[in-house]
Amino acid sequence: MTLRRRTSAGVARRIAIGETVPGGRLPEGAWYNGAVADGVIIETVPARAALAGNPSDGYGGAVLATPVRSAAATVTLRPSDRYEVGDRWFAGWDELAAAPPGDEAIGQAELVLAGIRAYAAIVSPEPFAPCSIDIDTSIPRSVGLAGSSAIVIAAIRAVARCAGHEPLRPDALAVVALAAESEHLGIAAGLQDRLVQSADAVVHMEFDADSAPRRFDRPSGRCEVLAAGLPGELFVAHRTEAAASSDTTHRPLRERHDAGDLDVIRAMTALADEARAATAALRAGDVAGLGEAMDRSFDLRRSVLPLNPAHVEMVHRARLAGAAANFSGSGGAITVLAADEATGRRARAALSAIGCRFLPVTS
């Protein structure tokens, strides 16, 4: 596979990416998901919710996940006489591209800057025109809905458009976004979120043992965009007061896996099987089968990870109402599947009673 971009002289130059990359079955095409008007560039990327198999994506497993378009991050670029990101400004391109992470907690500006640095390091070091970059998001923070990667992906798309480059394929975009967070910000993460958000589609993902590529040309697995509609009634429930950084889950899990913990290794293998079962059920329109795979995914996670009691209570209440539920990610959000409207109403009522809010999930 190759990517074409424009050099500053306006001549197309080919950048080799490699024939085998993550998401090899994703469709070709233009993958900007925004608008341009009077020099203003707007890119929007949805939240993401896992259905089954998570968090085996970082361990050679498989995951089925969906975008959540009822919440999204938006990055807006406007022409300016200097480079500005949020309330930070930079004297020139060299300073912007080399901007180190700040000492404070990672915020929206840090995510955008990491996206710019990763794009410059991997795709093109050429400067783009000075601009101001603003960030806005409706994705609840730190509840496991991939709000950080949504900002990074929107920033990378906007920068590519501003530079006059052709858009990256979803698989390549996911690799650059992962590098932004893992290499430039030190966040423990995998490709799952970024593949779903880059494709903006329900995706089944199979990962090789090395699922954290650092170059375009390093194989990492395969992906399939599913055309089948989501069966039943699907929604995300979240509790902001129970928010928790996903890094606090992923980092110790990685340490246990790398140390050869057999319980973790077996659980990741079983989780991958649940993702495959969920995908088969989705293709068949089998609500019960999909729900069973979601439930088993949660049970497997619980068998190897200490979970926040507030998060477990959310799953428990959804199940008592007759719905299936799994963690959307590794924060304070769950993905709930109801076979019918009545079950969905009961589940929402039970979850509302403990302060949950809801995001609908549509095909």
Which tags fit this structure?
363 residues, 2 domains, alpha+beta, Alpha-Beta Plaits, 10 helices, disordered N terminus, 4-stranded antiparallel β-sheet, 14 strands, Ribosomal Protein S5, domain 2, single chain, 8-stranded mixed β-sheet
Give structural notes.
The chain has helices spanning 93-97, 108-122, 147-162, 170-182, 192-199, 247-258, 262-284, 287-304, 309-320, 341-352, and strands at residues 2-6, 12-16, 34-37, 40-52, 62-79, 83-85, 88-90, 131-137, 203-207, 221-225, 233-238, 324-327, 333-338, 357-360. It starts with a strand and ends with a strand. Strand 3 and strand 4 form a beta hairpin. The chain folds into two domains: 2-225, 2-Layer Sandwich (Ribosomal Protein S5, domain 2), CATH 3.30.230.10; 233-360, Alpha-Beta Plaits (2-Layer Sandwich). Helix content is 37%, strand content 24%. Strands 3, 4, 5, 6, 7, 8, 9 and 10 form an eight-stranded mixed β-sheet that branches. A four-stranded antiparallel β-sheet has the order 12-13-11-14. It has a two-stranded antiparallel sheet with strand order 1-2. The protein is built from ten helices and 14 strands. The protein has 363 residues and is an alpha+beta fold.
